[in-house]
């Protein structure tokens, strides 16, 4: 695994736990953790349960005992590592967004296509929340009929304070974009996954409410400082991205990704209205899926709160009795389960790199629409 | 109508509005409002829409143009007025609790029995909330199966402050009891109404957390002051009453009525669990009824929030389109509708005085159980 | 009052009740109800409490005993009636939307300007829900700081069934537009009212999911039938309207008005995120306002559910103790209260016709943006 | 660890994860898993991550490489194992309830007292949910003032179906009691923990709604069958237990534990009302704690939903950013953390065996009260 910050820790839970919860055909071995700082990566490896460490990610390419590379670095290094790993015959799990640009993502898809017997998966973990997988199953089974409306927001508030520092996620060169690529990517992927349809066109706006911020303490001597001359630097990404969308099947949608929704900590909320029913969901209450069955008489009907903890709900066979809820990190255990099964079966993983590219194309259309103040067709749609 | 405080104002809404919302066979005329203070009753009559006023309630007995007497006074005068009114050939609506003691209630039932062609109704208005009437209909139709559990609380917080004054509702001589008779009576009546079954036995405790309070400003020279000698008087009723109950049909219940539930303003909450389903309700969200259908597979089921605003819901034919909620006062419009229909049809009203007596007997059993620390059978059960 | 359907009934509640709940300087007299069908208007007048009836609305112009005209007709007749009434020296309350076109609305504002001593009010009743008035007060007091995000939806589902008939609200000639003018107008007005700021520009889409519908039974012989030849007619308005907006003060917003949100009966929902706090509201739970105070430590903070039933909440001095909720219709009582007070004081009412025009201009910009697939500046902004 | 069913799996998560999430002074080694069926225990050990297996629990007593014994068996074997383990110089974690009878529990406390340098902890895992630990911290800090009311239910529905088989949890000889000891024990422990006060007296009822059930399939040849002669056996424990309680500090409480609350899967709900504030919690939404601050003006106050996912919330330093919720199993990781820290520090663990005994004494008082229909003082209180 390359990288050991937030995502590295979350993926490690998946690698450690998958065979404890599920009957998987292969039990993972956590061989090598890579990071640039030797002391820090050593500490992380011990904490997270990795056997060895390295400071150069290229070491994974030549190790015959490593079958799979898990990329948890910032988006600007995804393409280089993933392409090299695939070329070296490794399976790859790449954290989302697949890349910082469509061009990089395209190259990654080409690399995956050139290694058809290798699994190349992109880590949209929220698909693996049981409530989302159940929603997908219900929509595919026709329980909401023809989808008319999609309403998706991803609301956070961690940078509302204008004195919050200029971390890498607020710099375009590292992160590619701001709320759009970080959390907007999730709601683009999730809604398309749920509907089984792609977004065809968008009209968008983006906004940066706080345009400069203090440089992080540990960056005092870095080149960054020169951009402000006063210990502050320019925020080069969006704080918020809003867009309207038309889906291929005729549904229309509103989307909003923001880090300025005071009080909303991790409110990924999706509501879908169809001709026969509706579904609603919020990651802040991730064990619940709300369903309205429009085929029944309205006098006895209402949005019902399905506790997604029954044994026949997706992924729940590995866990606890009804009502004993799961948490955020379980999405990674499920992601790894699906990945391991794909590796063992020699089948493509879903979402694959092509799905990651398509999400990137939607995000690019959003960015272009916001920059040009015009509707934008999604390339490839 | 006798009395014009909180309940008088609420009943007046019912009298003014019933024929505006519903096709009732008789349109009420609001003839006479009675109160002891001539100036105050005059102001109230003009505000509430009553044609004339009087200061002696006995005037209603001899007025041939008055067909019905609505009693909104404190509980200690209910019996005297109701019995006289029935004897004078008037229909009677008496605010709950029917009386302060079982003996008084018994005399009132006797008076009602002696006037079989007069309607004698007790004002348990919460039965007339559409959600409660719908719950009754669903339970009677078997939608929850055999009831196993009843969970009923009525939580308020208006006397949490120990400096809140010693108003009449905190004096046993005026109010009969405290939370028990004032709000506990509602949950006793409602749960018995919903189940169509009576409570057979109880074990209870009552508590008075704040045992003396400042005398109200306008009571300075009254006899009350003597009980404290310092501008404070003794609280002679319960602040809270809690009990367990067994119903005739085998269900068991927990009940709690309190004025010390900080932050709960008017939380009358009832949950009923049956062999085939469950219902839940809260007056603080009075347009909603929650239903769990246990006859369907658990994987697709959850408590559903029925917005009780559909045209085929009880009482909703008189009101607005779906989703346009009603308020607390509508319960009184519905109460008056049912009363007027009973008067026109010459049929008994429900709940009648016998129902009021039965509730009183349950409350008495609660009081006795609390005093004796022993299970108590409800007299008559 | 002209018109006696849904809005006519709702306004009548206001006229009947305002002086029963509040100390208003003038008690309204409900003189004349106007409708084209003499039998129907007679029945309605008796039901709703109006003294006389007429079949020609022009009768109100010449009646010296009529001081105020309340217009509850479809939007295509608002301008003609309002302009005539103002010219005849009457005060006017006009149901929203002010008119079906900006041109009509402009003429109405001119008429109001020409009668400066007459009150000309437009009926955006949701401003008068206590929770909305409280939200306005809190935002004005700075409790959310600088507003960053507005998230407003108005979701209904009454025409999801494709066999629901082609009623007047689905015809452009009568209604002007569909969801946009009927319910979208409310969220445009409410959000601008809450922020005290106008919308400056929009990008929009509209959609008509069901393009033809059965003609209503009673329209069999009307010209409408010719448009389908088969008992069906074309839907000439939008089923749904979605738009992004930029406010004058820098906030960005998403808006959605639809009649195709299966299971959402009357879900007017607004969330506002500011630099110091957030507010959230849903008409389906109209006695609640949710507030997050971002100025306090996050570890003890969360969205709090304020039950807007305290005596010091807006309009609550006229009603019941805490926790005894109000309903939809109370918004009309409050609207009439504010109107009567403006008439008595000789001050302009708010929202006045100019406010109605401005909302109309926003709606027009939305329509134009949807038609041209381009961002549109709001005229006058 | 002895036992590998539901609790065994849950404890294993704790043992595997504690040093991955937290800086603990000792990293556990998962040495030996004990179970009677050699094949099954082998499979379980591999799944759950234990190094070796044994079929006789006594093997743990003589293994010098085993420092701590974790007892996850049914309640009837707790005393024997725990006493032997303590005598053999092992630390002990014993799943709740501590024992099936007060006598056994007393013997266990004596054994713990005789081994003062050994940690003897009882596994009330719900104390370790961050929301519950935060509630405890807030109550101890005076944020709710003097506690007046406790309202605690633990509602499940897994045996509502009368054809659900007669598993060991429904047999008094194995389980000691039914809902009372299994889930009632949790709410007794939790409420006492939260208040820092004990229950002094109770009045109770218990009920068994379904009195016989099919014998489990694999018990065909067992002695059980003889009790029915027809493939059914008698249910010898309570389906539901309800009681009222008085706490040492003057608070009063209602308690209910049931397996017949149709639709409630794992609804452990607690509400506490104090003179200055209130708290409410539900395990079905375990990342939320609701708080009402009664010291602030009611007009701006309401129950606030604290998402207990902030870094300064209890146990949250080991996990994810705000809003990324935890699950049920995390309570066991936290339990093991506290246990490991106690072992390392040589300090007693909390809750210790004496706490387990005290809970058992409350449960016994409940059982006695239900049997005698009289208030019962808790022994030792």
Automatic annotation (TrEMBL), chains A, B, C, D:
<dbReference type="GO" id="GO:0000166">
    <property type="term" value="F:nucleotide binding"/>
</dbReference>
<protein>
    <submittedName>
        <fullName>Gfo/Idh/MocA family oxidoreductase</fullName>
    </submittedName>
</protein>
<dbReference type="InterPro" id="IPR000683">
    <property type="entry name" value="Gfo/Idh/MocA-like_OxRdtase_N"/>
</dbReference>
<dbReference type="InterPro" id="IPR050463">
    <property type="entry name" value="Gfo/Idh/MocA_oxidrdct_glycsds"/>
</dbReference>
<dbReference type="Pfam" id="PF01408">
    <property type="entry name" value="GFO_IDH_MocA"/>
</dbReference>
<dbReference type="GO" id="GO:0016491">
    <property type="term" value="F:oxidoreductase activity"/>
</dbReference>
<dbReference type="InterPro" id="IPR055170">
    <property type="entry name" value="GFO_IDH_MocA-like_dom"/>
</dbReference>
<dbReference type="InterPro" id="IPR036291">
    <property type="entry name" value="NAD(P)-bd_dom_sf"/>
</dbReference>
<dbReference type="Pfam" id="PF22725">
    <property type="entry name" value="GFO_IDH_MocA_C3"/>
</dbReference>
<feature type="domain" description="GFO/IDH/MocA-like oxidoreductase">
    <location>
        <begin position="134"/>
        <end position="279"/>
    </location>
</feature>
<feature type="domain" description="Gfo/Idh/MocA-like oxidoreductase N-terminal">
    <location>
        <begin position="1"/>
        <end position="121"/>
    </location>
</feature>
<keyword id="KW-0560">Oxidoreductase</keyword>
